[in-house]
Amino acid sequence: MTRSTPNPWLARFAWVTAAATLGLICVGGLVTSRGAGLAVPDWPNTYGYNMFFFPISQWVGGIFYEHTHRLAAAGVGLLTAVLAVWVWLAEPRAWVRWLAGAAFGGVVLQGVLGGLRVTLIADELGVVHAALAQLFLVWVAALALFLSPGWPSLPPVPAAARSLRPLLLGTTVLVFGQLVLGALMRHQHAGLAIPDFPLAYGRLWPSMDAEAIARYNQLRLETTAVRPITAFQVGLQMAHRLVALGIVAGIVVSARRASRLLGRAHPVTRLARVWVGVVLVQFGLGAVTIWTEKSADLTTAHVGVGAVTLLLGALACVIACRDMLGLTRVWDAHAPPAGVAGSGALAARLTGPSA
Ligand code: HEM
Q1: Rg (alpha carbons) of the chain, rounded to whole number
Q2: Which residues of 6-22 are buried (b: 16+ CB within 10 A; e: fewer)?
Q3: What is the CA(302)–ligand 1 centre distance, in A?
Q4: In the beta sheet, which residues pair with residue 25?
Q5: Is residue 203 helix, strand or coil?
Q6: Which residue, 46, 60, 290, 299, is the most exposed by fewest CB within 10 angstroms?
Q7: What angle do CA 129, 182, 281 make, to 5 degrees?
Q8: Ligand 1 atom at shortest distance from the alpha carbon of 131
Q9: Are 266 and 204 in contact (CB under 8 A)?
Q10: How far apart (Å, rounded) are the C-alpha atoms in residues 37 and 209?
Q11: Residue 206: CB atoms within 10 Å
């Protein structure tokens, strides 16, 4: 097996950063699920304190969740900064170094967006913040994959199986669209715009005229606590349900086709099979979110498993499109593509030991 990096610890560190990002997404989900997004009104300070010195005795109620989220975000920022510097110093492939640099830019942007969402009290920025968090996770995990010792020796997708690529890509894009729809519902506080499932107000497709919406608002438990729902929000929830069905179908077909065209042992097939299990859990969590009237923990699990659903699809796409994107090259512009074997010590440093 050929190594793409001289230091497997670097790959491990990148995977740890990706895992920490997933944890951070869950903590962020918990903040929204607990309605604690604005529990700390200032930023970058916390109630006037430097956030690292905010007294523990004051970590109470919603402040606990929001403050923990900020500290966890600072931790992921630090991990990403160390990762970027380490990759920049140790990695021979220029494109991987740029990906690591962009990851650092991404984490800074994400932090600023989170802060502005608080100081400007802008729900729309919450949606962008949620979507960027998912993309950042995919970015860091892909980076970890590129740094992994096994990356150069992953089996290619043969020409006869290329039809799998648009299917994987299309389904993954649909998952991302679904995450954005979910974020729109959450940040509009419209998660329970329809209180029943699998039916919607007792029908397969609910009426959305003004009279029906007025009737739903009379029925809704949330009406007293939260703003009344609109036809748009009912439509949003129906779109989320329909897209969920499309995603489940896309993932099941992807797994079956990968198995048939690539064989069960191919990494794309393995990922696709795990993907099927994860999306079914996610579908169930979506239903439970409705049935429990948005239990905070289960709704947060729905956010976390949603991120894993996107991640699995994205990694399967990256592996399936590896040769098409030219990502199999171990050499970059600074190293000669020809005569690799003859370039002695440099070649040995870049490719590492062969097994
Ligand atoms: C199977 C694919 C699905 C995926 C990938 C998915 C993903 C997500 C994500 C990521 C969020 C939160 C977005 C955020 O705040 O950042 C969300 C919200 C939500 N999802 Fe899904 N979902 C799926 C299926 C379902 C199903 C079948 C239902 C059942 C009706 C459902 C009900 C909900 C509800 C009610 C919310 C809003 C929760 C709230 O307001 O706090 N989801 N979804």
Answers
A1: 23
A2: bbeebbebbbebbebbb
A3: 6
A4: none
A5: strand
A6: 60
A7: 115
A8: 16
A9: no
A10: 32
A11: 20
d(CA 273, CA 292) in angstroms, rounded, equals 29
Contact (CB, 8 A) for 170 and 176: no
Token pair 């715009």: residue: 193
CA distance 256 to 248: 12
pLDDT at 143: 97
Would the pLDDT of 226 be above 90?
A: no
pLDDT in tens, 2-35: 444 458 999 999 999 999 999 999 999 999 999 8
Closest CA to 129 of 115, 108, 113, 116: 113
Q: Tell me the two tokens of residue 19.
A: 């895992």
Q: What six digits make up the tokens of 79?
A: 């991990």
Query: Considering only CA atoms, which residue is closest to atom 21 of ligand 1?
Result: 286
Distance from residue 303's CA to the centre of ligand 1 (Å)? 7
Q: What does pTM read for this prediction?
A: 0.89
**What DSSP string describes 270-328?**
HHHHHHHHHHHHHHHHHHHHHHTT--HHHHHHHHHHHHHHHHHHHHHHHHHTTTTTTTT
Query: How many residues are listed for the chain in this entry?
Result: 355
Q: What is the DSSP secondary-structure string of 66-96?
A: HHHHHHHHHHHHHHHHHHHHHHHHH---HHH
